[in-house]
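Structure catalogue
Derive tokens from sequence
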Amino acid sequence: MTRALTAIALLALAAFILAPLAQAVLLSFTATLPRDGLAEGTLGLMNYRAVLAAPELRAAMVNSAAYVLMNVALCLGAGLPAAYALARFRFVGDRHLLLALLVFRVTPPVVLSLPIFILFSHLGLVNSPLGIALVHALFNLPVTIWILESFIRAVPPEFDETAFLDGHSGLSFFLRHLLPQIAPGLGVAAFFCFIFSWVEVVFARILTVTAGKPITMAIQAMFSFQTDMGQVMAMTCLSLLPGIAMIWLVRDHIARGFTLQA
């Protein structure tokens, strides 16, 4: 009886979560406005063809992919040495520094939006994916350091000493020995950086005034007095694909990472 109730509760929860997604997918294949000789309610790929044929929507997809990949690369490239230093060396205030990094991450982005906009406008980084990537890395780097530091700390220091005694340089040790050991941590960090950057809208709105708009801003711009919800849902479904692909690519590392952390 208990198992049956648990199964029913899980099915109800799954239906509650998946129902909006199923409706979005169905609408993405439905003509919600009569156009091009198609009656309202017609099923087909017309919404996806219209979305992919629009230059501004294609540019938004490229912009989002560009700044998200740059953000992940910046966070892992800068976070790994910082996490290694915090995990292997002791200095006054090291634990307080880790806590300060985490506190900075939970700071509301809107608090820093005006100073960042003024600074980036002077540096010429407004309306470019690089500007969004840099500001996202500013907020995602503390999370990256926090995650990688715990994974590096789990590796015995003797592992490092043995590699250096074998004649490995610092770069060789990182690439050939340390990275395979903390691969689950890299997967978890990359996953969080990707998701946080992909769905962020505050800085994406502020730093893309006339150009360089990401996919979130492109979807918002599609709403008007007479919105074609079929095309909006098609664009929304396309925006889900990179996240699904990211989860699929690092699924093993994510599972191992959360297991090791637990």
Summary: The mean pLDDT is 81.
